[in-house]
Predict the structure.
Amino acid sequence: MDSALISRTDIIAAADTIEPLPASISRLMSLVSAADYDAADIVDVITHDPALAADVLIRANSVMSASRSVIGDLKQASARIGANAIVEIAMRRTMQSRLSGEVAAYGLGPNDLWRHAVTASVAGDVIRKAAAKPVAPMISTAGLLHDIGKLVIAKCLPPTLTDSIVNAAAAEEIDIADAERQILGIDHGEVGAVVVRSWGLPVSVQTALMQHHAPTTDSFTHALVLADHLAHAVDEVNDAEPEEDDLSPWLADAAEHATAIGVAPAKLPALVATIADQASDVVASFVD
């Protein structure tokens, strides 16, 4: 395979110049990252983004938020679901169009990457609530973005290498990240870290993306790797015939990461079921 057609430097340069996040999301992230932010500023951002305002109201009135009465006011809606949930909603809406296309280099059809990203995002939130050790709320965003580097790599590949990564991984029975390193000298986690750094996301998210296919001792990264494994388990359940949905390979790999953040491995099948239900609802909410 002639990897000289594309270099690690080329890929990093492409990652560093990826389309920026919308101003509303950048503003929300800046506000939430400040310990003393004013809730009124959050509402102001939402007010000037009609699509986000609609999503926030829908979430505030959903079963997930346990609303007992209909909320039509953005201030009340924001107070009910919280600033981190608003960031999560905004990121999902923004990333839908970016992650919905076919990614042939990874054998992914239309919407495959998007569904997996949403499932990993939901998994991050479920894991955060189940973990005995503290996991930052930003884990949901990390889950959503953990494979963003695949888009950059796929766009950089010349036609002669379009399907090389998935084919190499299958032929040699190796992990997709190992195939990337073998062919390109870099994996999609490292590329994703460059992307989220350019977007101004926290160092914790950058580190987690960079290490989610590498050994780690970082709790936040363990949570992201666990979210990825459980999202793949959900994908397996959704794609397999009922009698063939063997989750043991995914859950066996997940056990180490679950234990590291205080989630009992015995609880993983139940978490997969919860994630599957919630992710299905979230994906459905984005269907126009």
